[in-house]
Design brief:
Blueprint lengths: L2 H13 L10 E7 L4 E5 L12 H11 L5 E8 L9 H9 L6 E6 L2 E7 H4 L14
Parallel strand pairs: 3-4
Antiparallel strand pairs: 1-2, 1-3, 4-5
Length: about 130
C-alpha cells in the first residue's frame, strides 16, 4: 500500500473525530500484513475517561475485519508537537505487532517521524511473554 493512501485514510478518520470537549482530532489508519486497511478516530464522552483513542478504534475495526497483524499504523493529529500514541495505545498496538512494525506519526502534510514498535515501546510486554499455560 502506498504512503499516500494510508495518509488519506488517517486524514479522513481524523476529520470525522467526535471531539466536542477537547477539539483535538486524531485519526489512525492501519495496514495489516494481509494488505487490508482499517481506520479509526478518537471519540470523546462527557464522562471523560470513557472516550476512546483513534488507534483503539482502528484496532477494533481490524479485529472485527478478521485481521490481527499490524504492518504499519499511521497516527495523525494537528499541532506543532508530534501526536504519538498514548501509553495505553502503545500497548494495544504492541499486542498486534512485531517489534519492527512501523508507527508513522503524521500531520496533514505527511509523515513527520517513523518509529518501530521497539523504539516506541522499548522492553515491552507482549503475548510472547505469557507462558502457554496462561
Amino acid at each position: 500500500m502506498t504512503n499516500k493512501v494510508l495518509l488519506t485514510f488517517a486524514n479522513a478518520a481524523m476529520n470525522k473525530a467526535y471531539v466536542p470537549y477537547s477539539r483535538f482530532q486524531v485519526g489512525a489508519a492501519i495496514e495489516t500484513s494481509s494488505g487490508e486497511i482499517y481506520s479509526g478516530c478518537n471519540v470523546e464522552n462527557a464522562a471523560y475517561p470513557e472516550g476512546t483513542c483513534a488507534e483503539a478504534g482502528a484496532i477494533a475495526a481490524m479485529v472485527l475485519g478478521g485481521d490481527t497483524q499490524i504492518k504499519h499504523i499511521y497516527v495523525m493529529g494537528k499541532g506543532e508537537n508530534l501526536v504519538t500514541p498514548c501509553g495505553g495505545c502503545r500497548q494495544k498496538i504492541r499486542e498486534f505487532s512485531s517489534l519492527d512494525t512501523q508507527i508513522h506519526i503524521c500531520d496533514e502534510n505527511g509523515v513527520r517521524k517513523t518509529l518501530t514498535m521497539e523504539e516506541l515501546l522499548p522492553f515491552s510486554f507482549g503475548p510472547e511473554n505469557l507462558s502457554p499455560e496462561n
